[in-house]
Amino acid sequence: MIGQGHGPKSKIVGTGSSVPERLVTNAELEARLGTTDAWIREHTGLSGRRVAADGETTSDLAAVAARRAIEAAGLTVADLDLIILATSTGDSPLPATAAHLQHKLGADLIPSFDLGASSAGTLYALTVADRFIAAGTFKTVLVVGADLASRVIDPACRTMNAIYGDGAGAIVLTVADGASGILSSTLHADGTLAELMGIPGGGSAEPLTALGLANKRHRLTMDGARMRELTERKLTSFSTRALKAARMTSAELDWVVPQQGNARIAEAISRRLGFPPERVLLEQGSQANTMAASLPIVLDNAVRAGTIRAGHTVLMCALGAGVTWGALIVRM
């Protein structure tokens, strides 16, 4: 847990996001998978999800989101000192997708690396960036969360095709000069639960073979019921810890941005925190669960719509494979 007892060390100065043009509607999933629009809306609140086109990569979406965040910050690529890309679906196993992002931005020689913490990746990346800035190692850090979940999901899976989509979100952090900034962060991981969600094949433990491909070992697997229960419980308890670390109560929050893609989880978190549901930001419509991209996409959309404004205090929380999870409080 990281508490900012002497005030924030870093602040958010720009946000950006990018989603694919292609929209896969519930009607399309009905025809292809035998699910129903009513079931999808009841469980997720979604009418569709954005899916990357053939040839579109994680670094492509990340670069667009990054440029928008840098522009919103009133900065240029030359002002960046570090790039952190949170992703579980990189362009390839090697090199880090952050290297491709750096090249596409023209951010020559700026240190860049990937961070893998699934849906909690952006929270982890923001915390790492905040610590680098607090230590004086870097002044301005670009954090990007980007995932193309559609590339690892079994096309025949009714549940995950209804929940997950593709996208990228970006946040620019720099040195805090007042009360605004990251107030607290709490992170956790439990490797004993690693089997609940993951991609079994393709790594050193199980190199892909023709048989592995035939058995779909390169596809995402998930114990949905167990992950949902963990998400509701862990995000509530760790959001409470983040509030205590910031010496705040939920009544002092303006907004909560929870993990996206499941309306029922958001409702449970709101109820357990005792926080008004109308203050819980959910991107319905076509904004599905985009893993590490979900939180920064929602944040960017809310900032650009004027929903989240300067001085507002926001709690963000997410849980993903690993199992990794966390919560972070920031004053905009």
- Sum up the overall morphology in one term: globular
Tell me the number of structural domains: 1
CATH architecture assignment name: 3-Layer(aba) Sandwich
CATH superfamily assignment? Thiolase/Chalcone synthase
Largest sheet: 5 strands, mixed
What's the total number of strands? 14
Gyration radius (Cα, Å) is 19 Å
Given helix and strand content, the structural type is: alpha+beta
Quote the distance from N terminus to C terminus: 21 Å
What is shown here, in short?
This protein is 33% helix and 23% strand. It is of the alpha+beta class and 332 residues long.
In words, what does this structure look like?
The protein has helices at residues 26-33, 37-44, 58-72, 97-105, 121-134, 158-163, 210-214, 224-245, 263-273, 294-305; strands at residues 2-3, 10-18, 23-25, 48-50, 82-86, 112-115, 141-148, 166-175, 181-189, 197-198, 221-222, 255-258, 313-320, 324-331. The protein is α+β, with helices and mostly antiparallel strands and 332 residues long. It has a single domain (1-332), classed as Thiolase/Chalcone synthase (Peroxisomal Thiolase, Chain A, domain 1), CATH 3.40.47. The strands form four sheets. A five-stranded mixed β-sheet has the order 1-9-14-13-12, with helices on both faces. β5 (82-86), α4 and β6 (112-115) form a beta-alpha-beta unit. α3 (58-72) crosses α4 and α8 runs parallel beside α9.
